[in-house]
Design goal:
CATH architecture: 3-Layer(aba) Sandwich
CATH class: Alpha Beta
Largest sheet: 5 strands, parallel
Order of helices and strands: HHEHEHHHHHHEHEHHEHHHHH
Strand content: 5-15%
Structural class: mainly alpha
Radius of gyration: 21 Å
Shape: globular
Mean pLDDT: 91
Strand order of the largest sheet: 2-3-1-4-5
Length: 384
């Protein structure tokens, strides 16, 4: 695997010397975070690469593992992808990368060492638990959009941080010019970079499948929406679920999401920055995936409306399984029934003021009129 060294050093230059007028202004808090990021990144990557080398030496058979019919959940940010992802991985026949596997031990040897260490920890009374609980509490404070934890399934596209090649870098480094090509990944990222990204990602999935007894792999990434062609080329038998939600809900919620990132990793002068960038990527990610994926066989692609998912999660999953030719086990059927009951009681606590963001309903409807028309969305009422 090759790190995108050019983007790494460009980002470092922008982060320290090109911050004027950006949400990443160089305050003392931001400076400290940057020093930690750029100091720890090489050390982090060195340990990961050593672990990968040990994988080749001690578990070479993983290279022959096949990632059969992986499922990719795509769609814009704040379109229900996390909800559907965590619902699907409740099936005992499914698996997905968790946060600790992505960031701490993407390698086979790393996972085994940590599991051995946890067995020792339990044998002496589980003293590590308070550290893990403290970490989860800290992350919960900053991850108000959805529950975050070391053992929670997360967006596996974050493994591409390992090679510094991801649109998600925008959350840490709010300089849109550096990652704008990633908005249009399949069309604008050079072929060599795309092939390197896909090869590395495939290797990580092989290691994960090897470690999880060849279970069905499920991925969820909004930032994978512009790379469906690359993913399909890498995984020809892959299945795709495209979630679609009303822009009147997606845009303010996405702007709020990025605002949270900006305030977590810095001190922006305004509460709601990156609005134009959010609108730009949202427009492309609404239309591009369907334009490409609709050509696939019916058992490889399904488009789901957010309002249908939250209204009837059980029925939506049953529809997905039926179209993809998958069987629902009796155990998973019970899980789906429990989730249906929870969905009836759930009420979102997130409220957004378009006015405070400098937006209004008319602008969103105008910006996304083509999306409303092509996707047959209704603007008559906002989805709850």
């Amino acid at each position: 695997m090759r790190t995108n060294v050019r983007l790494y050093f460009q980002t470092m230059y922008y982060a320290f010397f090109k911050t004027k007028g950006t949400p990443g202004r160089l305050t003392p808090k931001r400076f400290l975070i940057l020093v930690l990021l750029f100091f720890l990144y090489p050390l982090w990557q060195f340990t990961i690469r050593i672990a990968y080398l040990l994988d080749y030496l001690f578990y070479p058979e993983y290279q022959f593992e096949e990632v059969n019919q992986p499922i990719f959940i795509i769609g814009n940010f704040r379109s229900g992808t996390t909800f559907l992802h965590r619902l699907l991985v409740k099936d005992r026949d499914a698996t997905s990368l968790t946060s600790w596997e992505m960031y701490v031990a993407p390698s086979i040897i790393g996972r085994k060492i940590i599991r051995w260490g946890m067995k020792l920890n339990y044998a002496i009374g589980n003293p590590a638990q308070w550290l893990l609980d403290a970490f989860d509490r800290i992350m919960a404070e900053y991850s108000y959009m959805h529950r975050f934890g070391l053992n929670e399934p997360e967006e596996d596209g974050q493994v591409l941080f390992h090679i510094f090649s991801s649109y998600d870098l925008l959350a840490l480094f709010p300089f849109p010019d550096l990652v704008r090509q990633y908005i249009y990944y399949d069309d604008q990222i050079p072929l060599e970079v795309r092939e390197n990204d896909m090869h590395y990602y495939h290797e990580v999935l092989k290691k994960h499948i090897f470690s999880h007894n060849q279970k069905r792999y499920i991925s969820k990434n909004p930032s994978y929406s512009p790379k469906v062609k690359s993913l399909h080329k890498e995984f020809p038998d892959a299945k795709f679920i495209n979630l679609v939600r009303n822009p009147l809900q997606v845009i303010p919620s996405s702007i709020s999401l990025f605002s949270n990132h900006l305030h977590t990793y810095g001190e922006p002068e305004t509460d709601y920055a990156l609005q134009d960038t959010v609108i730009e990527h949202s427009k492309h990610w609404y239309l591009y995936p369907h334009r490409y994926l609709k050509k696939l066989p019916r058992d490889q692609y399904i488009r789901i409306r957010y309002k249908d998912l939250v209204a009837d999660p059980k029925g939506t999953v049953e529809r997905i399984y039926k179209q993809f030719g998958l069987d629902i086990s009796p155990e998973y059927a019970l899980v789906l029934q429990e989730e249906a009951v929870k969905a009836q009681k759930y009420r979102s606590s997130h409220r957004y003021s378009l006015k405070s963001m400098g937006l209004n309903k008319r602008r969103i409807l105008q910006e996304f009129k083509n999306i409303y028309r092509q996707l047959h969305l209704s603007d008559a009422k906002q989805e709850k």
